[in-house]
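Exam revision sheet. Question 4 asks you to relate a sequence to its structure. Input first:
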Amino acid sequence: MRVLGASVLVMESLTLGFAILLAIKEQSTAGIIYGSIISLLLFLTAGLLKRRSGFYIGSVLQIFMIAFGFFVPAFFIMGVIFIGLWAAAIIVGRKGEAARAAHLVSQAEKG
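Answer key, structure tokens:
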């Protein structure tokens, strides 16, 4: 779950970084600063996914990612896509961890 979540957060951070380049020509410095802060927080949160609080912070940052759509309108759609990827990473990650735990228990019983 941690690896999938970190992948999504880093992809979001990079995508937002490239969107900041679009916002430089069209938006005020407030949009650029907002995008830079969110991009940095997304990147740093990928390292916090070792703890449960990292997933909560990542979930809150998804909302801020959509809010960047007020500066670059395409990010309303991109934000929804990334929320879907974030939810999928959590759901698939939990199933993968459960399967791994079951596999380890079966290996321990055999050995």
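Marking note for examiners. Residues 2-110 form one domain.
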